[in-house]
Each structure stands twice: as C-alpha cells, then as structure tokens.
Amino acid sequence: MSTRYKVGGRTHTIRELLEEQKDRVPITILGWIQNKSFIGGMIFLIIRDGSGYIQTTIKKENVPPEVFNVVKDSTKESAVKVIGETKLDKRAPYGLEIIAKNVEIIAKADVWPITRSAIRSPSFLYDIRHLSIRGKKASSVIKIRSKVIEAATEYFFKNGFYLISAPSIVQSACEGGATLFEVDYFGQKAYLTQSAQLYEEAAILALERVWTIEPCFRAEKSKTAKHLTEFWMIESEVAFATHEDIMRLEEELVSAITHKVAEECSGELKILGRKFTPPEPPFYKITYDEARDLIMKRGVTFEWGEDIPTEGEKIISNEFDKPVFIKEFPLSARSFYHMTKLDNDKVTLSSDLIAPEGFGEITTGGQRLSDYKELEKRILQQDFPKESFQWYLDLRRYGLPPHSGFGLGVERVTRWVSGVKHIRATSLFPRTPTRLNP
RNA sequence: GCCGCUGUAGCUUAACCCGGUAAAGCGGCUGGCUGUUAACCAGUCGAGUGGAGGUUCAAAUCCUCCCAGCGGCGCCA
Which domain holds residue A332? Predict the structure, then answer.
C-alpha cells in the first residue's frame, strides 16, 4: 500500500525519508515550518508533514539570495515546499536532514501564538485548540485514537460482524432521562442519542452480529478527567450470546486494539512518554461483591446496591496489572434493560471492564432482557413514556433470543493506551460542560 | 447539582498575607552570529491587574456580588 501522496509535486513523505535513511536522494516535500533557527549565513527549519518531522538546512551559498531572504523572514507554521536532497548527518535529529536548493512559502502564517510558556497552560491551549492540535503530543494522541478505531474495525470485519448505523436523533432514552440533550424536532421533543444499543438489538434479528461506531451525547455536568459530553462509542450486539460470551468478545477486541496500537504507534507513544504493554488475555474477572469487599478493606465504604464510587474504582484499577471485569452488578446500579441472574433477581448479568493503572472503566456489557412482561414492568418502573419504547418491547414479541452486547468508550481506551491524564486530550475538539468552542 | 481553587502584558509568573500607584522570562520588533536541537548575544515595544460596586487620602492588594476557567465529587463509555 502506497503512503506516498503525490500532490503538489511531492516526491516523499517525511516518514518515508526517515525510514529509508538514504544519502543524496533528490526530493520535494510539502509541510509546515515547525521551528526555525537563523544562524547568520544559514537557516534550520524543522518541517512537519502529516507523517513526521525533518530538519532542512538552508545555506546562503546553496540557494538564490531572494530565497534565502524569504526563508529568513518566514514564520512558524507557514506552509512550505522544499526542494533539495537528503544528507546523512549526525548533527541532524534522527541523523538525516535535507539540504535545500529551493524553498517556496506556500502560505505564510501570522505570528504563532503558541510559545514555550503557553505549553504550560491547558486552558489557553484548549481555547485555541484549532491551532494547538498541530503540537507533537496533541497530534500523537489523535493518531493513536485513529489506530484504535482502525484496529476495532479490522477485528469486527474479520470476525463476520456487520457495521450498522443507528440514528443520532432519538425519542427514547436508554441511560436515564436526566442526561439527555433535548432538540426541537419540528415541534416535537427529541433527544441526541446516548447509545445505539436499542437499535442494535433490533438489528441482530436481521444480521445476528453487529457493531457500530457513533457519537454519543450525555448531558452530564461531569467535570472529571474521564467524561466528555460528546464521545464516540464502539458498540456490539450478538444474538444468542451469553454474558460470558460477550466478555470473551470484549477481551479479544481490547487485546486486538492494544496490540495494534503498541506495534504501529510506537513513535507516537514515545512522543507521549508512554510505556505501554498490551495486556494478554485472559483478563481478570471478579464479582461486584468481591470488588466491594476489596474496596471496603481499603477503607472506602458504600452500600450494597450502589454503584462503585470513583475512589473504589481506582483501587480496583490499581490492584490489577491487566484489565479486570467487575461482573454481576446489582440491578439498582444498572439500566433497565439488563438481564438478572436466574437465581437472584437483584443481580444482573453485566460487567464493567476496568483498565489498569488507575484509568478505570472503559466498557460496559452484559446480557439484555429478552422477556416482554419483565421488560414492560421495568420500563413502567422507570417512569419512561411507554409509547416511545413500544418498538423496543415489540422485539420481544417477534423471536428475540437471549442476546448480549457491550459498549466501549473510544476516547477512554485512547486515554488509557496513550497514558494522557485528561480525556479531552483524546478528542480533536472536545465537548465538556465548559467547552463548546472551538 | 455539590465542594475547593484560580483570574495580573499574546503566554507563564512576581508584587497580594502586612494597601503607596505593576516586575521579569518567553513571544514580537531591530541588529549580530555558517551547525541550530526549548539556539545564543545586545537593544527595544508591550498590561494598569476578569467585570461591577464598596471601604480608603490611596486598591492588583481589603469587602460584596457577578462572570469565566481549573481540580475533585456524584453520574457514567
């Protein structure tokens, strides 16, 4: 597969040059000036393109005088075309540089607002996120996110899943009404979707095993390092699958994603200073009760039936060296659609997958309720409008077998793999309760 | 929704506690330098301190309210 994009007269991407490490190759590259230093009769430019960074050296005697002056007056982040040849030189970063014969400024940039001190100001960098995404670290995280999605896509297609797309404008909630973003739909109340799950359950009756990757919206005013109000979720649903089956699927998927990132994003991980070892299956499995015991022993208390508090989740996350499933959550801590155990209707066949090193929850999955009467009861208990759930209930009238599924937070997985503190770094233009712009 | 913190040149900070009329680094600009890696050296420009009000002879500094952001909790992917 060629990664050489021959637009604008370009002969090589920077990554290709660095990989080849050849001397005296005539080249034309396109990119942006990432840094410039002017030393009397010579100028060093660090050129960035979508694939990497390379130093270009412009010597006064090698280029026409007007070109030297234009480069001397050039600004950071201006788009440039460099014509020259490669030179192996120990003094250059990565041992390779370009000796320029000609440099053309394609688009001159104004004074670049991001200085050395600005890097210490997350608030400022997110105010100008449209510019700061060009940074080495910022773009590396985005590249890793891309790889996460690539790996998941590869995994699902290899294993015979169909990709579906569910609507983003919906009438029914699936994770509780309080956290819905309301939209006006020609005078009717509608909402931005929180999950594609209910639609996937319909889809498995036609396609048996499906997956989807879509934006999800949660109007939670959560000011934490792991919440976005708009995030992307990879979800999958499988007919006839049990809770155990779906945990195995999650395990395989997470393993496939993490191995691919570790192998193919080593450069990005290095830029981020992240030492990441992909976990080998099987992952650990503990019950909610076991998790609660362990957390209580560490001095954090909560009632049986409550969701595990953040502090408790951190304890679990730091306790294990690989991801760990916490299974059999109490129904009181779960959404209405979860199936309960046959011998205990207070405990669901569901699990959260907790990433290690304190990163915490990355997926939730489980078996869904396939009985009409029981589901109807739950919907009424939740005080949901039954009309908008009728189609979902209806599935139970027309041959819905036991089935299971899960949802994986793309940004949460990216955060864990990249090792970044805050989830907003994993989104190109993050949406948090305090950020809607840019 | 709750708790806590912060807001001073484009950016990062100092001066705030114990009121006296804003200081520095980075960036910019001008000049110098033929091997820079966050280059270096010299010079120079740049804010009246988030907003409104109050106390005072005098407010960045004390008080009140508002706004914005950050950290955390609850909730969750």
Answer: 129-426
